[in-house]
Amino acid sequence: MTTIYEPIMWAKNMKESKDKRSVPTQEALAIACAAYRINEGYVKSTRRFSCEENETVFANKELVKFAFEDRADWKPHDWKNIQVIEQDYETVAEIKKWMKRYVMLGLGDLDQFKQDMISSVAGDTVSRSDLGRIAFIPEFVKRDRHETGLKKEIRVEYRDSTHLGKEKDTVEGVIRILDKRYSTQWESFNYVAVMDGNLVSFMNKYEHEVGAMKRVKAKIKALTKNRLFEANETRLNYVKLYKV
């Protein structure tokens, strides 16, 4: 049987913070993980629908923020309390373990974004003003784990990657997708793939799963380096993808 934890129960059981502007980090992370589970990922903006039968999909940051809001009249009329389950606390433990490795290694070589994310969960409490950042932590860790594994794969398997020709050349072949990232600016997916042991990257408006095999025909746009590891990468344009 799944154990459910209601926010109102926490208020009775938790030691009251001396600073009303902060909340326990453990509980903030648990709510963030619950929001991530409920939304099946990270939702950046709240979505409401014209049909009443379709429930509002709250942005993760709003789910976390309103979960700790004491005043009921400050919450949206369609707000429903989040239920935190054991799985969420297990995810919190995994997140803390992943973050701890950075603390052990030191933060000096990390970019400012990563430093901010790691520092935000380093203490026993977190400022209410930082709850939006806390809401992103589950997605951050998911991406960071993937990128760490991908960087290792590229370093070991594709460090000798070579460019596929010169700019404007046509290339054809079979690729395996290694990575995908969605760009809201271009409303397309940015892919990194491998063709015959050589790295390629391109944008495509359709979503393809990591690991998928596709036949590709494209033009070479630029001869670049991979963003995670200094291996040669061919940037493609006018990309057409087909079934293998």
What's the order of the H and E elements? EHEHHEHHEHEEEEE
Total number of strands: 9
Q: Approximately how much beta-strand content do the residues carry?
A: 25-35%
Mean of pLDDT = 88
Helix amount? 25-40%
Shape: globular
Biggest sheet strand order reads 5-6-7-9-8
Indicate how many domains the architecture comprises.
2
Task: Kindly provide the radius of gyration, computed on alpha-carbon positions and rounded to a whole number of angstroms.
Answer: 22 Å
Low-pLDDT residue intervals, each spanning 5 or more residues: 1-18
| Helix vs. strand class | alpha+beta
For the sheet with most strands, the description reads: 5 strands, mixed, barrel
Whole-Å distance between the termini? 45 Å
Total helices: the number is: 6
Question: How would you concisely characterize the structure shown here?
Answer:
The chain is built from 6 helices and 9 strands; from the N terminus they run βαβααβααβαβββββ. It has 244 residues and is α+β, with helices and mostly antiparallel strands.
